[in-house]
Structure formats: C-alpha cells, structure tokens
Design brief:
The structure is a single chain. The protein folds into two domains: about 200 residues, Alanine racemase (TIM Barrel, Alpha-Beta Barrel); about 120 residues, Lyase, Ornithine Decarboxylase, Chain A, domain 1. β7, α7 and β8 form a beta-alpha-beta unit. Helix content is about 30%, strand content about 20%. With about 375 residues, it is α/β, with parallel strands linked by helices. α10 packs across α11. It is built from twelve helices and 20 strands. It binds pyridoxal-5'-phosphate. The site of pyridoxal-5'-phosphate has 12 residues, from α9. Pathway: Amino-acid biosynthesis; D-alanine biosynthesis; D-alanine from L-alanine: step 1/1. GO terms for molecular function: alanine racemase activity; pyridoxal phosphate binding. Keywords: Isomerase, Pyridoxal phosphate.
Length: about 375
C-alpha cells in the first residue's frame, strides 16, 4: 500500500480518481437494457463534474454517437474534444447570440419554443447546410418545450427550411417507477409526436434518460439519453461506482472530554478523543449540510464531527489506533457511494457529483484506450 510507509512523502491534497472503464461499462450496461434503441450520452455540466475532456472520448470509444449538453458553449467545447464525427445536441435550443457556435461546431439545437424555431429559421442563411434540429415536446414537467397551443401553431406555420430529425421529451418522475406521471407523459409524447408527422417526417423519438431506460421498453423509443447512470448514480442501482475520493490525514490531535471541535463549537467530545483533520471542505463540494456522515479508514467508519469548513473536515479517529498523518481516508468509494453521501446532506447524487471541486488532484484510470478501440 502506498500509504504504509510513514516516512514516505505524502501530498496535502485530496485525490479524486475517476474510472473511465467503469463509465464505459455503465454505458454498455444501459445500452444492453434498451437493445432496440440507440444509446446516447449526456455530458452536460462537464460530464456531471467528472471532466468532459476525458469522459466524452471514453464514451465515444465505448460506442456513443449522439451526445447531449445543455448549452452551445459546452457543445463547442465538446466538438473540439470529439472531432467532427458524433452528433451533438443542445438541450437549451437555439439562440441567435450563439449562432456562430452552432455554425462552426455543427451543433444541433433541440428547439424548445415557437420563438426559437422562428429565430432558427431567420438565422438559416448564416448556418451551414444540413444542420438538423430537434423539437422538445412538453408533456408534463413544464420546463422547456412546445406546449399544446405551440404545437398547433407549429403545424399551421410549418418548419420552413428547417429539418427536424428528433422529437424529444423529458420525464418528471422516472426515478419513481410506479408514479402515474410516467405513463401519462409517455402517452402524451406518443400522441403529440404523431401530430408532427407532417412537420417532421421520419423524425426519431427520444424520451428516456437513465430512469426512463430502467422503466422498460415502452419508454425507449429510438434514442435514449442517459446521464447519471453512466457516472454511477441512482436510479441506476446496478451501476458500477465511478468515483473514488480520498484525503490524507493532515494531522491527528488529541482533545479532552468536553472540548469542542470546529466553527460554532457545535460538537463537544463525549470522551477523550483523537480528531483527524482532512483537507477537503465545502469549497470542494462536500456540503456544509452534511450530518451524520462518515469517512472510512482500514475498512471501518469514522464519523464526521463538527462543521464542515471551507477547506477542512474533522473526523473522530478515537477508535482507529492506526490513524496517522499521511494515511489516506476514503470519503467516496467502495464503502460510501455518491448517493449515500448525498443522503447525509439531504441532497441527491447528481448534486454531489456536479459540485466536486476543481481543487482535487484528479486521476483518471483506463485500460489502454487504443486496445479498447479495437
Ligand atoms: C440531464 C438530462 C438528461 C440526463 O438525465 P439523467 O437523469 O442524468 O440520466 C436527459 N435529458 C434531459 C433533457 C436532461 O436535461
């Protein structure tokens, strides 16, 4: 073990390890659950915080051909990473201010409103030939998308020279399989898509994100859009863990019963205690709201005590006689999933992943990518 020699030099920075092979395996596992559909990949928000520059090529090598990001700036960055081959879809649709990004990076907007469609059509003379668009059909989540009256207007007005090749909608409750919303939205999506047969002839249909894939074949349509499941998060319970977050113990301090630890003196030692100081805090994406969370050393838990501060955590190592400066403690990994840590902060795995800070030493593990490509 790298940390077994107490004299060896050790880093004062916490380390985030991202397993690109696990991401590729999660993509293949989700693809296998929807064998009748193409499986895309959602890499918005810097691939859920894990680093689009490394994650997207690994997904492309696994076989992904359709990528989704939120906005055109992300899309342009992704185009530089992936090169000319894959389709890149933009969830936020089209805005004239980004027209050059759409043109240069050949980004496909998922149009969300009549206004966007009109602006896209007006910009067509400045856009390259063959730029496809999607249409986001609102079916119940009430964020983006064409509502019923807008669909009527679209059918009356037509698509002009714009070519819609993808009809998309998004489920509000896909992580709750029994929720009545799922079938209602599915029905609305199928019905409203049928109304667009003339406006968007031959367009493919896409409804399922990670949760939708797990709801079964009825929800798969032509193209799926998994995000969180690729990165090891719920609702894909069978996902392989992708991230490992470890921090060195900076210092172990002995305190007496009745002494307190951290800001606000919110924790008071019930016995003489050994307190470990770890170099990661809320600036690194470990929420200040964490309550009752643990870290792991030698396969055993050590509870967080006191408040999470900006750069530091404090943990109770009294029952860990082998704790010493330089030894690595697990914050995320085999003993504690992203979703377990999220639960201790009253949030979801998505938020933990996308908050992981820029200050970690990041390591990516991957089998020889050239071998994997063969
Ligand atoms: C983020 C997002 C996804 C991916 O959702 P996951 O739950 O992470 O799989 C798919 N579609 C849309 C429209 C999204 O905004």
């Amino acid at each position: 073990m790298a940390d077994s020699d107490p004299e060896a030099p050790w880093s004062q920075t916490a380390r985030l390890t991202i397993d690109l092979d696990a991401i590729a395996r999660n993509w293949r596992a989700l693809a296998a659950r929807a064998p009748g559909a193409e499986t895309g990949a959602v890499v918005k928000a810097d691939a859920y915080g894990l680093g689009m520059a490394r994650v997207a090529p690994a997904l492309a090598r696994a076989g992904a051909r359709s990528f989704f990001v939120a906005n055109a700036r992300e899309g342009a960055a992704l185009r530089r990473i992936l090169g000319p081959g894959p389709d890149i879809w933009i969830f936020n649709g089209f805005t004239p201010a980004e027209r050059e990004l759409f043109a240069k990076a050949r980004l496909f907007p998922v149009l969300c409103s009549l206004r966007q469609l009109r602006e896209f059509r007006a910009a067509l003379p400045d856009l390259p030939e063959g730029l496809e668009v999607g249409l986001h059909i609102e079916t119940g989540i009430n964020r983006q998308g064409f509502g019923m009256h807008e669909l009527d207007a679209l059918r009356a007005e037509g698509m002009g020279e714009a070519r819609a090749t993808l009809l998309l909608s998004h489920l509000a409750c896909a992580d709750e399989p029994e929720h009545g919303m799922n079938l209602r939205q599915r029905g609305a999506f199928a019905g409203r898509s049928a109304l667009l047969a003339a406006a968007a002839p031959g367009a493919r249909m896409s409804l399922a994100a990670t949760g939708g894939i797990l709801l079964g074949e009825k929800f798969h349509f032509d193209l799926t859009r998994p995000g969180i499941g690729l990165y090891g998060g719920l609702p894909f319970g069978q996902a392989e863990p992708v991230v490992r977050l470890e921090a060195p113990i900076l210092q172990v301090r002995r305190i007496l019963r009745g002494e307190s630890v951290g800001y606000g003196a919110s924790w008071t030692a019930p016995r003489d205690s050994m307190i470990g100081v770890l170099p990661a805090g809320y600036a690194d994406g470990l929420p200040r709201a964490l309550r009752g969370a643990k870290v792991w050393l030698d396969g055993r838990p050590a509870p967080l005590v006191g408040r999470v501060s900006m750069d530091m955590l404090t943990v109770d190592l009294t029952d860990h006689p082998r704790a010493a400066p330089g030894r690595m403690v697990e914050i995320l990994g085999p003993n504690q999933s992203v979703d377990q840590l999220a639960a201790a902060a009253g949030t979801i795995g998505y938020e933990i992943l996308t908050s992981l800070g820029a200050r970690y030493e990041r390591r990516y593990t991957e089998a020889d990518p050239h071998e994997a490509a063969g």
